[in-house]
Structure formats: C-alpha cells, structure tokens
Write a structure and sequence with these properties.
Length: about 240
C-alpha cells in the first residue's frame, strides 16, 4: 500500500516488513532499490523529473521524515511508523551479519567510510564487508566503480553520496553493480563514524530528531522552513 504526497509515492510499511522485502530480494527475488523519502525530497522531486521518476520506480520508498507522518494523519492517511534510513541501514547490517550477506560501503571521505566500517565490525562481529570506497570519483568513473562493487560479489550496497548524487549513481549504475539490495543512506556513514551525533533516543522516539539537528546545524533553518509549506500543500493536494 502506498500514499502519495505531491505525486511522490511513499510505502505504508514497517521496519520489519522492509527487512523481509530485502531478505526476499537476496534470496532470489528481483533486486530491491530502497529510497528514503522525506518532505525535503518530495519538494525537490516536484522540480526534478529525474528524481521523481527514480522514486516512483524504486521497489521500496520508506517514510523517513516525521513530516510525512503528520501530513498523513492530517488527511486521514495510514502512515503511522517512521522508517528512518539510518535505522533501516543498521537493521539490514545486523541481518547481514546473521545471514552471511556481503555488504559494500560507498561514499563519504576515505577516513569516514573506513571508520564506519570499523564501527559496523564492532557492532556486528560476524558481518562481511565485501568492500568500501570513498565517494570522491568523477562522473565518468561511475561505471568502473560499479564494476568494483560487482567484483566484490555484493549483496547489499549502501551509497552515502548525499542527494542527488547518490540517486544519480543508483539510477545510472545501480544495475551494473549486481547488488541485490541497493540503498542511498545520505549522511549515515558520518553518524556511524562518530563525526555527526544523532539526537538522543528520547527525542527520536517522539519525532524531534529534526529539532536536534537544527540545534546542532543552524544553517539547516532554510531547509526546515519547507516543512510547513509541505504540510499545507499535501493536505490540500490529497493526491
């Protein structure tokens, strides 16, 4: 089941259901592209047909943004659980460690992705990190990077290039990687590597992680200002 926000589809799904979808893809189903959708991405997609098409064609569009939950409730929708990109990323890594799936980390600075890999190894000692690579490569190198991922026999590919670079890479080169599950994870490597702190659990549990990020990074105020506009327009739009 999906809900649509300004013509952008978002799946009504739980974290557990998302994990099961990934398991099915790795067990022989069709490759699964996972996209984390939040209000900012919805607004961007209005003016970026490539991004809008990319989201629409993804196998799983997770509701990563409390604004989506609020908008859904205001218009009588069914979204109730926020499935954040970083939490699904970590849950997939935990499951990968339990089942012997091979993961590949692509993106961020070299020292960041290396520290992120070390932290994953610490949290999940049985995890198999098939490979890692920083995100500093030219557009004409994307195909060779995809070949590196394929050569590593990757099951799950996590791409932390930021938006829209990670979407562009996955759209143009994702299939070439041969990965069974592909997911853009934004700044998750920086969080995992300890470069960027997450909000306390108490704030995350009540949907106030955005407020903590604004406190830590005041420059985000312009981006956050899009939220009330998103809420007003989506409630009126009701698509």
């Amino acid at each position: 089941m999906t809900e649509t926000f300004l013509d952008v589809p978002v799946d009504v799904i739980t974290t557990e259901a998302a994990l099961e979808a990934a398991s099915a893809a790795i067990s022989g189903g069709a490759p699964l592209l996972v996209v984390a959708v939040n209000p900012e991405k919805v607004i961007k997609a209005e003016h970026d047909p490539d991004l809008r098409s990319f989201i629409a064609q993804a196998g799983l569009r997770i509701p990563d943004g409390v604004g989506l939950i609020i908008a859904s409730r205001l218009r009588g929708g069914r979204l109730r659980e926020r499935v954040t990109g970083i939490d699904l990323f970590l849950a997939l890594c935990e499951r990968a460690a339990a089942h012997g799936w091979r993961i590949y980390l692509l993106g961020a600075r070299r020292e960041v992705v290396e520290d992120a890999a070390k932290e994953l190894q610490h949290r999940f000692p049985r995890i198999t990190i098939a490979g890692l690579r920083d995100g500093y490569f030219a557009p004409d190198e994307a195909q060779s990077v995809a070949d590196e991922v394929a050569a590593a026999r990757t099951d799950l590919l996590f791409v932390a290039l930021g938006s829209p670079l990670q979407e562009n890479f996955l759209r143009r080169s994702g299939e070439r990687t041969g990965a069974r599950v592909l997911m853009g994870v934004g700044g998750s490597f920086d969080v995992l590597a300890g470069r960027v702190p997450r909000a306390p659990q108490a704030m995350r549990s009540v949907g106030l992680e955005w407020l903590y990020r604004l406190y830590r990074e005041p420059w985000r105020i312009r981006r956050m200002a899009a939220l009330p506009v998103f809420l007003l327009r989506t409630v009126r739009h009701r698509s």
